[in-house]
Amino acid sequence: MADRVDSSTLDTGSQYGDPAQYGDPAQPVRRRRSLVRRVFRSRRQLLVALGSGTVAAAGLGSTAVVMLSGGADDDGSSRGSPRDAGAFADRDSSYVQGGALDLGVDGVAGTPSGAAEAALKVAPRYPTPLSRDPIMHLLRRATFGPTAPDAAQLRRDGIDAWLAQQLNPDQVPDDAVDRTLAAYPLLGMSTAELRAVKDLGQAAMTQLGHATIARQVWSHRQLYEVMVDFWANHLNITNPFDGGDVTRSVSDREVIRKHALGRFSDMLLASARDPAMLRYLDNASSDKRNVNENYGRELLELHTVGIDGGYTETDVRHSAYLMTGRTVGNDGLFRYDARRHWTGKVKVLGFSHDNKSAAQGLQVGDAYLTYLAKHESTARYIARKLAVRFVADSPPRSLVDRLAKAYLDNGTAIVPVLQVLFRSLEFWIATGLKTRRPLENFVAAVRVLGIEPESGTPDAIQEMYQQAQRLGNAPLTWGPPNGFPDVAGAWSSAHAMLGIWNSHRALAQGKYRGVRTPKPEYLIPPGPTTVGQYLDALAVRLVFQPLAAREKQAILTFLGAPEATKIKDMTLGGKVKDVVPLVLDSVYHALR
Questions:
Q1: What is the pLDDT of residues 331-390, one digit of tens each?
Q2: Is 11 helix (H, G, I), strand (E, B) or coil?
Q3: Is the dihedral of CA 421, 426, 431, 433 positive or negative?
Q4: In whole angstroms, what is the distance from residue 547 CA to residue 525 CA?
Q5: Residues forming beta bridges with residue 452, ordered by sequence position
Q6: Where are the domains of the chain?
Q7: Which pTM was predicted?
Q8: Dihedral sign, CA of 18, 23, 26, 28?
Q9: Other beta carbons within 10 Å of 113
Q10: 244-276 burial code (b ≥16 CB/10 A, e <16)
Q11: Which of 288, 329, 453, 463 lies most in the core, judged by the most C-beta atoms within 10 Å?
C-alpha cells in the first residue's frame, strides 16, 4: 500500500462545499484569509457596491437580504429584522436537514452516572456503529479523543468523580504539557512585554497556534481544553491576523482561557475590552462621526442573542453607537476615548438609555453587555451551541430548553450548565451522533497512538500544525467571525477525507520527528495467535471496540490472510504499518 493517497484527480467538492478551501488551494493562506476578512469587513459597503441585484442568502447572510429589500430609518438603518429574511438560527443549522432531533428520551438524573445508566435501558432511535459504553462515549465527547490510560482512570474513578475533577481543572496536574509549553515563552508575555521583543512579527501568534495543538494532544485537563476550543470559536478572532502581533496571544489567555469555565457575562465584558477583538472587528477605528457597525452587529448576531434573537437593523446601529469610544491605544492596550463616543438616546431590544454623557459611555456599554449576556435569547443561543458540540448536530429542543434555564438560573455560569448537560439522558443516548472535525480527528489519532513529547517536540508540532492547515482546520485560523463549523455536513468532501487518511499514515508510520511514536507492532502486547485475534485486539486498542464483520473482512482481504492464519511475527509480514492507519480510517475513529 502506498504511504500517501493521491487526491489530485478527485473532485474535492461536496454538496455543501468545502470550508477548508477558499479558491485555489495553492493560494497563500494569508492572502485567502485577507480576502475573506475584506468580504466580511463592512457588509453595508458591500451592499452599496452590489446595488439592487438579487442576493443569495447563503452568500451574504440574512442581513443582506433585509437591507436590500426592507425600508430604512432616517439614519439609513433598515427596519427589518434578520429573522424576517428566513435565516437559520446559526450557520451550523444551515447544514442540517430537518428540525431538532427527537432522541426518544429526555430528562435529568441526579448524577451523570445515573443518567448514563438510565439511558442504557432505552434503545436508541438513531443507532450508530459505536458501542454504547458510557465510559467511551464520555471520553469521545469531553476530550479530544480517548486514550487507554484515560479509559483506565475513568473506569477506576467513576464517571461522577472524573467529571467533577475535569470541571475543576486546577485540581488536575498537567506537568507534561507545562514542560512542552516551555518551548513557547511568548505565550505568557503581556502586551507591553511583547512590544519589547525585537523583530517580533507574528511569532507570538505562531506560538499560540502551535501551543493550542500541544494542549489538545497532551493536556490532562481535557474538558477545559474542549471548552477553550468552544469559546474560541464562539468569540472567534482569526489567528494570525494583521494587527494581532502583540494582542492575539494575550486575548487567548485573558479572555478565553481565563473565563472558559467561569461566567459568560464576565467573558463578554472582557471581550469588549480586548484589543484583539476591537481590532479584528474594526471597533478600534469606530468614531461617533463615522460609526463602524461590524462589532455592534457581531455582538448581537454571533456573540449573544443570535440572528433570530429579534433585533432589527436599527438595533444594530444603536449597538454600534454604544460601543463607540472603545479603542486601542498606541501602546496596544485597551483605551476608552470619551471624545469618540456617540451620545444620544439608544435602544437595543429591551435595553434603553439616555446615554447623555460621553464620560459615562464605558459604563453604559458595560450595562448593555451585561443585559445581552443575561438575555433569554442569548441563553438559548449558547445552550444550543453547547448541545451541538456535545450531543448532536440537531439537538433536541428539550435539552436546549433545559440548558438555557440552567444558564439563566445560575447567572450565566458555565459549569452548572455543563453539569445539567452531563446529567441529561439526551447526552448519554447520543452515542456516535457527532462527527469529528479534521483537527479533532487528527488530534485524536495522535492521542490514541500514544505519541509522546521529546526534546524535538516543537518541530513536530510545527509539522502537525501545517498538516492541520492542509486539512483546512488549523486551530484558530477560521477567517470570518463566526468560528469553525461544528456539524458533519460542513466538512463533507473527498478532499477532507483523503487528507485525514494521509495524516493517519504519517502518524502511525512515525513520520513526525521530535516526538516518541510507538512502533505499530508494539501497540498491543504479545498474545494473539491468529490474524483474526490480532485484528480484534488492535481494534480494541485503537477504537476501543472490535470491528464489524464487514470491516474486519476488508482488512483480512488486504492482508491476503484468512482469519485463522497463524501469526508468525507482530509486524504481520511488514503490513502492520498499513493496518494501523486503516483502522484509524474507519468510521469508528471518525465519530465522536
A1: 999 999 999 999 999 999 999 999 999 999 999 999 999 999 999 999 999 999 999 999
A2: coil
A3: negative
A4: 19
A5: 516
A6: 10-262+381-493, 521-590
A7: 0.87
A8: negative
A9: 20
A10: bbbbbbbbbebbbbebbbebbbbbbbbbbbbbb
A11: 453
